[in-house]
Amino acid sequence: MATETKVKSPPDAEIMAICDRFGSDHHRMLDILLAVQEERRCITPSTMDTIAAVVGVTRIAVEGVASFYSFLSLAPKGRVTIRLCDDIVDRFSGLDAVVAAFEAELGIRMGETSADQAFSLEFTPCIGMCDQAPAAMINDVVATKLTAERATAIARALKQGMSPAEALVADHDVLSPYQRVRALVDNNIRQSGEVLLGQVPEDAGLRAAAAMAPSAIIDAVEASGLRGCGGAGFTTGRKWRFAAAAPSDRRFVICNADEGEPGTFKDRVILTERADLVFEGMTIAARAAGAREGILYLRGEYLYLREHLEAVLAARRARGVLGANFDIRIQMGAGAYICGEEGALISSCEGLPGEPKTRPPFPVTRGYLGFPTVVNNVETFAHVARILDRGAAWFHAMGTEKSHGTKLFSISGDCARPGVYELPYGLTLRELLSLAGAENAAAVQVGGPSGTMVGRDSFDRRLTFDDLATGGAVIVFSARRNILEIVDYYMSFFVHESCGYCTPCRVGNVFLKKAIEKFRKGQANDDDIAYLKDLSATIIETSRCGLGQTSPNPVLSSLQNFPLIYAALTKPTQDGVKATFDIQSAISGARDIAKRRSYIFDKDFSK
Amino acid sequence: MTEARKPRVATVSLAGCFGCHMAVLDIDERMIALMGRVEFDRSPLTDIKTFTQRCDIGIIEGGCCNEENVHTLIDFRKNCDVLIALGQCAIMGGLPAMRNAIMHSREPLRECLEEAYISGPYLRNATRLIPNDPVLPLILDKVYPCSDIVDIDVQIPGCAPSGDIIFSTLVALLDGKFKGFARETLRFD
Ligand SMILES: Cc1cc2nc3c(=O)[nH]c(=O)nc-3n(C[C@H](O)[C@H](O)[C@H](O)COP(=O)(O)O)c2cc1C
Ligand code: SF4
Ligand code: SF4
Ligand code: FES
User: Given this model, what pLDDT does residue B103 score?
Assistant: First the structure.
């Protein structure tokens, strides 16, 4: 019967060629899908069928990846996709006007794609440009310091057919990749320290390491007291020792450049100014752990850095310091905060949805493709290169007893001098705030949403692993800001970014956000404070990875440090009847539909 | 000589299915013992429609889906010393609260009523109207658990709770010995 013959579309040569470029290897699924997305601007069911057939996995496996990442889309996206950061910092820096300008000039609303498929407008969480907010990604480049006028001008240029790069940077085609990066984004280096942002010699650490036995390298890194700079603060030397000791004939070194914690942008600056140092550190790690293959996992938001980083890698290969015993490839991410978690990052490198893995086993014993893997933060690797050059004692002497060396802080929000500060561990928050011109700070989010929100009474605490720990983010809020609006935003961030594996994280964060909304609407009572604490404890205790284990922190730390704000918004129960239930708003919809008053709760004005 | 005052019990079914009241009857012949100890006031079991006097225990089945439920619940709170939420509907909203899941609509209530009376696929509604008799109470924007509206003292979980747990909880309350439920009685089957 005619209706039963399936119309077979001819095999899609272009898609097959893309698969071919990545060896039709299902571990490269994310790269394949990113390439398809770039080419076609969406991933259709028939494309997924083709990919599934070519790489030899099920269609649902392809769809599982395609639907996980926010930069991949199943519906067609515009030729130019503008992704505005809608973080609270951007909202406090005039985001509304920028949104209005883009919407007016492009004739579409946020979340829409224009009918001619020329433009899409979207929101996205922090893109790492917090010191120059409001900011947006426009395809493969970023626009910073946006104003309504600038947004209108950019949209006009794009409508006239300019490429995003042309619209943002004059003469961009004559610039080197590094110059292009610098023209797009300010470094805002406010304070250079001795280790990373001051003068650094080329490959001195690597030369020293080459003359050392692998175990001696690990000894030096351990003796330096270096701890991971990505947030968790694990001792780097010990991590490497575990990986080196795990029996295997293949090992990997991965650099975590996902930098997804809102308010963190120090890796951006390191990758711009000290990329060589990072690759040098990775090469040293490879020698120490016995790895021949390395991956730099670069967040999708930093796509604009890719050409520059590829150029640095190529130059290193040309110099002979990379490629012979150890080489590095860049794996692009695709807009998922959870991929900063090392297990999820490895899943993502393996071409899977970015879901964390159950621990143990830890990556040092079973990591990428099941082989022992060292995962470290960008800044951690850069420090390693300097430690090998200057010696463990030099590094160990800086900082405090349990936090050695220097740290890059990225400061944003309500301050005069937002940007990156390299300082020895151990200074007080007050000292840092005064350097940044944030004397009016009323609340500071240290360590991003997953960190701690502190008030003025905590400004004398020290920025160390044991006191106020941060992977770099320090977000300043003045007294004008509404604390609960900030908490509410951070909860919506976690709701959006939960990978969905654990119910307490997937559902619990939604409930937490709803409870905070109740406070904001003045509908909370005393029980709700107990509920916030109780629910938070459940989420922390029963979540599988660090996201769920830290997602209630905005609520818990604001409850602890700003209790009066919550107390002022609660309404006491009177005679057992809750003041927080509002019968009038509960019946107003039905009153409109029925077109009559309530015979129970409304006064009869006709009498 | 006056007899010692018997504790008074009132019950009501709000947005429930009456299953919880049926479950009260599941205490079977123990009902005789219970009747020896308490007096039922306002309740569908006695067909008394309003409180005749203050009660010691009020038992609520169902959450609040309309304004009359709210009114009744507040009346119970005012007239009872101990208020019990009996069953999932009273505790969480239960089955009726499924309509709370209509979220991605500008007018979830209208959408719900239209689907129920006008556009649903298996409907026979000759008038094609949403019922709007003046005696019908206005329905709420969503279904509320009782504890969103008044303080609830005891929650007896289950859909419906077993006769055993209802009986043992009432007896414990009457003896002044109720201390919450043993962990093994709270489970998913
Ligand atoms: C939700 C989540 C997000 C994370 N994001 C990052 C990140 O963007 N960059 C990073 O270096 N580490 C991140 N981490 C920490 C990593 O899991 C891992 O601990 C780190 O990369 C190890 O490197 P380090 O020891 O050098 O810090 C994240 C952890 C969690 C739980
Ligand atoms: S805690 Fe959250 S992000 Fe982490 S695995 Fe569970 S659901 Fe995913
Ligand atoms: S809890 Fe179950 S038995 Fe009780 S009223 Fe609700 S649906 Fe009926
Ligand atoms: S870029 Fe908007 S807050 Fe980081």
Answer: 80
Secondary structure (3-state) at A125: coil
Q: Which domains does chain B have, with CATH numbers?
A: 8-98+141-185 (3.40.50.700)
Mean pLDDT of B99-111: 90
Cα(first)–Cα(last) distance of chain A, in Å?
74
Average pLDDT over chain B, rounded to an integer:
94
Ligand 1 proximal residues by C-beta, below 6 Å: A 228-232, 234, 256, 258-261, 338, 340-342, 375-377, 380, 545-547
Q: What is the pLDDT of residue A2?
A: 45
Flag whether residue B115 sits within 8 Å of chain A, measured between CB atoms.
no
Query: For chain A, which ranges sit under pLDDT 70?
Result: 1-10, 605-607
Measured CA to CA, the distance from residue B115 to residue B109 in angstroms comes to: 10
Q: Pick the closest to residue B112 from B66, B70, B60, B159 (CA basis).
A: B66
Q: Does A265 sit in the ligand 2 pocket, CB within 6 Å?
A: no
Question: Could you tell me which chain A residue has the CA closest to the CA of B70?
Answer: A583
Give the nearest partner residue to B151 out of A573, A590, A598, using CB atoms: A573
How many angstroms from the chain centroid is the CA of residue A260?
1
CA A170 to ligand 4 centroid distance, Å: 24
Convert the pLDDT of each residue in A175-211 to its tens digit.
999 999 999 999 999 999 999 999 999 999 999 999 9
pLDDT at B169 over 70: yes
Q: What is the pLDDT of residue B182?
A: 86
Distance separating the N- and C-terminal Cα atoms of chain B: 50
B150 contacts in chain A (CB < 8 Å):
576-578
**Measured distance CA(A474)–CA(A447) in Å, rounded:** 6
**Interface with chain B: mutation pick from A517, A526, A583, A601, highest number of B CBs within 10 Å:** A583
- Tell me how far apart the alpha carbons of residues A380 and A384 are, in angstroms, rounded to a whole number: 6
- Quickly tell me which residue has 């700070």 as its tokens: A441
Q: Which of residues 70-109 of B touch A (CB under 8 A)?
A: 70-71, 74, 77-78, 83, 107, 109
Q: What's the confidence (pLDDT) of residue B3? A: 64
Please state, in angstroms and rounded to a whole number, the distance separating the CA atoms of residues A150 and A101: 9
Chain A residues in contact with B151 (beta carbon < 8 A): 573, 576-578
Show residues of chain A in contact with B68, CB under 8 Å: 600
The radius of gyration computed from the CA coordinates of chain B, to the nearest angstrom, equals: 19
pLDDT of residue A10: 65
